[in-house]
Design brief:
Layout: H1 2-25, H2 29-33, H3 43-62, H4 94-114, H5 127-149, E1 172-175, E2 178-182, E3 198-202, E4 205-208, H6 214-222, H7 234-242, E5 251-254, E6 257-262, E7 265-268, H8 280-289, H9 297-305, E8 360-367, E9 387-394, E10 410-413, E11 422-423, E12 427-429
Parallel strand pairs: 8-11
Antiparallel strand pairs: 1-4, 2-3, 4-12, 5-6, 6-7, 8-9, 9-10
């Protein structure tokens, strides 16, 4: 078992570094050091930050070795310097950042080879190595967002996702009421905010079979959705007026057609694809307009994990098997969501599709700790973000790697955020006659 865990950690670290290399080698040094949006760091900051976190946790903490570059810790402290100000810092140049990250990785692989994967919560089941692989993949998704924000010709390529091949799916699925197990106490690389497993009771509700599509969202736009205050939370109404927002980010109207910019390519908005780059306020407004609502976080997880036959919660909608290409659109395999209705082999026991991958899905819930939460291994990963300021997103996107995506995985962001790969699906309470 120990060697299997060691291999899993090695594979996760190797895959993350290969993706980091792809994201940072496809543009020149000027593009790496430029800030493409004040919402994001320069790509070279992410590259060195990845190496610095790996050094701090695996070289210094797990291995107990002397710091390699203690003088840069402050520069790459995400809590000390807001993203908008990071270009003003004394950042490592691209070549130096690559050498530093590579040097750290070489030492860490030796640490992995020599470390018993037991004897304390940080190393049990290789947790610290899994945490760092997840951290790197999370920054890879952040860098992918930066690539979407940058102007100029396309720098990344990927094959198209598979066609949906689905007809006659019901618009919504009934999720029965009752208890289910939310969160986890057994997933070895789960992060602190996913823990512990606990019972939740959810009344019966209906949830969209697939995420809301661009075509459905266009109907909201054409019906005056952005000009009717009835559908908007007060803060959202203020936001769209203050910033002249009248469509998802990266969309523009050209005559009678909607176009979008996607990784340097301008193309017609595909009607059958899940809508992307909408804020929580936009998702909430659409749901109200449609006479529905956003699902709560607990509802989303029950729809994704609950098996009504056994009564247990699965790791993923399709079961306990790790994600494969047949199950979900993950890992930057494609540079867009797959059409709504894709991945029938990834659907939940109740028949809900695309709960994992394609687009992060906004929920109605604030980001709060579970009963019995304990910060580990540091408060700044989750605890400092708890409260009403952040909304929970679930499920992952096409830009999320499988190592950082589970049925229990929780993402969170400010409700104004639009640059992230976020969409949504809607829900409604079950009427008395629908609950059985």
């Amino acid at each position: 078992m120990t060697e299997e865990l060691r291999r899993r950690a090695l594979d996760a670290l190797t895959a993350a570094r290969a993706r980091t290399a792809t994201l940072t080698s496809c543009v020149d040094d000027h593009e790496l050091t430029a800030q493409h949006s004040p919402l994001m760091s320069p790509l070279v900051w992410d590259l060195a930050h990845i190496g610095n976190q790996e050094e701090q946790w695996l070289w210094r903490t797990v291995a107990g070795r002397e710091a390699l570059r203690p003088e840069i810790d402050s520069v790459y402290d995400a809590f000390e310097h807001p993203r908008a100000l990071r270009p003003t810092l004394p950042l490592l140049a691209p070549a130096e950042a690559r050498v530093y990250a590579s040097d750290v990785r070489g030492r860490v692989l030796d640490v992995l080879d020599r470390t018993p994967l037991e004897g304390g919560p940080l190393v049990d089941a290789g947790f610290a190595f899994g945490m760092i692989a997840q951290h790197e993949q999370q920054h890879d998704e952040t860098m992918l967002i930066t690539h979407q924000l940058r102007t100029g010709p396309a720098a990344l390529t990927a094959p198209e996702p598979p066609a949906a091949g689905a007809r006659g799916l019901p618009a919504e699925v009934l999720v029965p009421g009752g208890p289910f197990t939310m969160g986890t106490s057994t997933e070895p690389w789960a992060l602190d905010n996913e823990r512990p497993a606990h019972q939740r009771v959810v009344p019966p509700f209906l949830i969209d079979t697939v995420p809301v599509t661009c075509g459905a969202y266009q109907a909201f736009i054409e019906d005056g959705g952005y000009t009717d205050s009835r559908w908007w939370a007060a803060e959202g109404w203020d936001q769209i007026h203050r910033h002249d927002i009248d469509a998802p980010l990266f969309w523009r109207r050209d005559g009678g057609q909607w176009l979008r910019r996607r990784f340097g390519v301008t193309e017609p908005v595909p009607a059958d694809e899940p809508v992307l780059h909408v804020s929580w306020y936009e998702a909430d407004a659409y749901a109200r307009w449609a006479g529905r609502r956003l699902p709560t976080e607990a509802e989303w997880e029950k729809a994704a994990r609950h098996d009504p036959e056994s009564g247990r919660s699965r790791r993923f909608p399709w079961g306990d098997e790790d994600p494969a290409p047949k199950h979900a659109n993950l890992g930057q395999r494609h540079l867009r969501p797959a059409p709504a209705g894709s991945y029938p082999e990834g659907e939940s026991p109740l028949g809900v599709r695309q709960l994992i991958g394609d687009v992060w899905e906004w929920t109605s819930s604030d980001f709060l700790p579970y009963p019995g939460f304990a910060a580990f291994p540091y408060r700044e990963y989750s605890e400092v973000f708890f409260g009403s300021a952040h909304k929970v997103l679930r499920g992952g996107s096409f830009g999320v790697d499988a190592v950082a995506c589970r049925g229990t995985f929780r993402n969170w962001d400010l409700p104004v955020r639009r640059q992230i790969f976020a969409g949504f699906r809607t829900a409604r309470d079950a009427a008395p006659g629908e609950a059985s």
